[in-house]
Every structure is written in structure tokens, then in C-alpha cells.
Write a structure and sequence with these properties.
The structure is a homodimer of 236-residue chains. By secondary structure, the first copy, chain A, is of the alpha+beta class. Chain A has helices at residues 21-30, 108-117, 119-145, 148-163, 184-191, 195-207, 224-233, and strands at residues 31-36, 41-43, 51-57, 60-65, 71-77, 82-83, 94-97, 101-107, 176-179, 211-212, 218-221. The interface between A and B is large, with 45 and 45 residues. The structure holds a DNA duplex (30 and 30 nucleotides).
Chain lengths: 236, 236
DNA sequence: GGATCACATTGATTCAGATCAACGCAAAAC
DNA sequence: GTTTTGCGTTGATCTGAATCAATGTGATCC
């Protein structure tokens, strides 16, 4: 058997953790594991909602675009995250792999039915959706009201929160280092800025010794206090 | 008895519609009806999540602010909408009445418990949350990537969708009239603009005979095609 | 080794929208 | 009926970020 929930690396973190052994076997029959290459789309904006999935490995971006090509990243997905629009007929956004990825796919109708029969699973899904709603609303404040420097500072702090490598933290200091999982254009699309503005703001933070940039992908936060101040009110 | 779900005006539209007569009686015991004056807050950003509620009458805004006073409206609530953060301990935003309102309030812990015991109710709540997430993500594209004229046009169309008075539509034409439930500053806070920019964009649309403004609160859409074009791509 | 390609940075200039400031206007208060 | 008060509009100016345009840099491929 190719699929096997018992061996799944995300079984304890994904919504599946609400299920017992028998139920895992049942949902296993509905799923298939699919590999997606970096850059490939899993779901297209405007399409009927035919599939939903769990991210097993890799990373995805969730985007919405205007006809002239302007694009906004409206979400990021990592292993154990849930993808797709259950209980609805349209996908309102595109889901694209940022790295080579693996997902565990269900037909939406199968999944909807299974969820309705398993309230604990539905509860997990509700909790995730509520958490995601909180996150998305936080970014509305960022997109609607924050300046470029506030946006970049907020972004770096959120990324450090999600990605900070504990082994790198220095006792007594607040040095944190992490690798951004995407390039400048993606950062710009997350923050509602242009690539040039993002670059300039990063350089500025570097000049003020608030961050260090060993290379384009890696970021060290040297002074998280000041970064926090910039993120919240723009006070340099 | 002051509270009576049987007589409730929103019982068929609110999440309570998932409940049968006996269950309505049970949830009735957990609720109390509360009146809120325009401008009064029901929930404060950062507070512990102690209550949740259904909007029975009136309207609310959901806001998040920066320390220097910049404010972003991140949601609007109308009768039958659900308010508050179930299954979580913090409210991430402030909820304020825009008009004199009535809500049906539950203690969050009572509500959480009741929901877990009634999967159909939880399902309704999930559906609402998913729909709201779609809406909020749509506004991320607006806030992150749309120009002022695109934002105002999108806003007017969405409002017309929600509020258009059917009795005013002219056969064969596309005249639609509605009353904005809020002033220019609120519109600015929804769109991530200033009051002056909103005003100028409205005047511009009026000059181009795309809308008419009988007074500050009322809007007539004269040419919804052109308005749609502006909303989607900015083509005047 | 260079050549190419994909990103990222940096600089010069422009422009959309913010800010600052005055004025208009209708409803409420006197 | 005049004054006040709370919006909303309009105009002049400023500015932060976009745009336009090189230039830099580091991987991959001959």
C-alpha cells in the first residue's frame, strides 16, 4: 500500500490527529499521496473546489491576482497544514508549491462527507480555520495601515517566530538566525510592496545593525527590541 | 421570559438554525439578550475571550489598531452574524457597535461546551468561518494591491451586493440605490485610505456619471459595468 | 576559464495618495 | 434665526513608495 496514515510524518499535527486507528484506516482509503514540483499549482483561483489536501512535505503559497498581473500572497502553508475549500464550490485563490512538495489529497465530496460523520475531525478543522482567520486579519492591519519599514520589520519577526533555529540562539543575547524560504519577490508579494522597496528596507535595517544578512536567504536578528519597535509604530 | 429563541428574528439565519426545538430551549438558557448603544464596544482587542454572541439587530465593526491611532476595519457584522472567538483565549480585535444594536450573548466556555455537544451547530459555525475567511482574503488583495479608485469601486459594488434595495431597481437598466451604513471615515478605515482620498474618488465617479450621490449617505450606481471595470483593473 | 541566467541591490525620477489647510453645509443647540 | 458642531468636500503641497534604469553577484553551464 502506497498510502499509510500510520506512518505519516504529519499524522500527529494535521487534522487527522483527531482520528483513532480504525478511522485512520477509513480515511486512508479516501486519500492518495501526490508529489508536486516547485512552481507547480495544486489549485487554481476560480476553479470548482474538487479536491482538498493536507500538506505532508514542502511549502505552498496561496495567491490572488488581478488581471494585469499584480499578485498578493494571502497565505503560506507548511507541513500538517490543510489546503482547499471544503463545504464550498469555488476556490477563491491559487495554491502553488514553493518547493518540491508532497500532499495527501482527498476528493472534496468524499472529504466533506467523512468530516460530517466525524465531529472531532470537524472540530479540528474549525480550530484551524479560526486560527487562520485571526492570522489573516492581523495581516489586514499590516496591508491597510503599516508603512514599508513597519511591514518588513513585522514580517521578519513573524518569520523568526515560525522558523527561528533554537540551536543558534545565544544565551543572554537575542541573536536569532533563520533562512527565509523564499526570495525577495515573494516577500514583496506578501507585504504588498515592490521588490525594490523590500530590498531597500532590508539594507536600511542592516545599516542600523538591527539585522545581519550573511546572504540573500539568511537573516540574523541582532536587536529584536528595536525591530519590535519598528514593527509596531515605526519608531526607528 | 425575556429571551426566547422561538420568537427570535434571526433564528432561521443565525447558526441557531441548526438546532431543533428542544435544543433551542437548552441554548436559550445559556443566552442573554444585551442592548448596545452606537459607539459602544462589545469586545476589546487583547482581552481574554470571555463571551461570544449572535448579532440580532444593528451593525458592528471589527477593528485592529496601531498605537499611534491608525485603525483598520477588518470586518463588519450584521444581524444573524456570529461575534467573538470561540475555542481560543484571546480576542485579537475590537468589536464596536456602529448603530444601536442588540446581541444574544453566551459565556464562551458555556458556548464552547454546547457546540462540542451539537455537531450540526459546529458545522454551521465552520461554514460561516470558512466563508468569512474567503471574504477576508479577498480584501487582502484589495488592501495589498489595488489603487484608490479600484478600492472605492470594489467597495461600492460589494455594498450594493449586500444592501441593494430591490424595489429601486429599474427594469432594463442597472440603476441600484442603497444607503451606506457609515460615514466617510469608516469607509476610509475599511479601504486603508484617508477620508480625503475616499471623498475625491467618489466625486470623480460622480463626475463620470458612474454613480450619483443624492446625499452623503446614499449612493446610486448608474453604470455598474464601468464600475466593475474600474474595480477589477482600474480601466476608467 | 568565461558566458549566461536569475536574483538582488542601488540610484534617479515620478506619481499616487497623504498631509496640511480652508471652506461648505446641514442638523442640532441655543 | 443665529451659532455651534460634526461631517464632507476641495485645494495646495509634500512625501513614501513605485517606476524606470543600471549595475552587482553568485550559481550553473559550456
Amino acid at each position: 500500500m502506497i498510502n499509510n496514515c500510520e506512518q505519516c510524518v504529519v499524522k500527529n499535527k494535521a487534522i487527522c490527529s483527531a482520528l483513532d486507528a480504525d478511522e485512520l484506516i477509513a480515511i486512508n482509503r479516501l486519500s492518495r499521496k501526490v508529489s508536486i514540483k516547485a512552481g507547480q499549482a495544486l489549485i487554481w483561483e476560480g476553479d470548482d473546489s474538487l479536491i482538498v489536501a493536507n500538506v505532508v512535505e514542502g511549502a505552498f503559497k496561496l495567491t490572488s491576482s488581478l488581471e494585469d498581473g499584480r499578485e498578493q500572497i494571502i497565505g503560506l502553508l507548511y507541513p500538517s497544514d490543510f489546503v482547499g475549500r471544503p463545504f464550498g464550490d469555488k476556490n477563491e485563490y491559487t495554491v502553488t508549491a514553493l518547493a518540491d512538495s508532497k500532499v495527501c489529497v482527498f476528493s472534496r465530496s468524499d472529504f466533506d462527507k467523512f468530516v460530517r460523520e466525524h465531529p472531532d475531525l470537524e472540530h479540528k478543522l474549525l480550530q484551524r480555520t479560526l486560527t487562520e482567520l485571526d492570522r489573516v486579519r492581523r495581516s489586514m492591519l499590516l496591508l491597510g495601515r503599516k508603512t514599508a519599514s513597519e511591514r518588513v520589520a513585522s514580517f521578519l519577526l513573524e518569520m523568526s517566530d515560525r522558523l527561528a533555529d533554537a540551536s543558534c540562539s545565544v544565551v543572554g543575547g537575542n541573536l536569532e538566525e533563520f533562512a527565509l524560504p523564499f526570495g525577495r519577490q515573494q516577500v514583496a508579494d506578501i507585504l504588498g510592496l515592490t521588490i525594490e522597496t523590500v530590498s531597500r528596507q532590508m539594507t536600511q535595517l542592516k545599516k542600523n545593525d538591527i539585522i545581519a544578512l550573511p546572504d540573500h536567504r539568511n537573516v540574523q536578528i541582532l536587536d529584536s527590541m528595536r525591530l519590535q519597535n519598528i514593527a509596531d509604530a515605526g519608531a526607528a
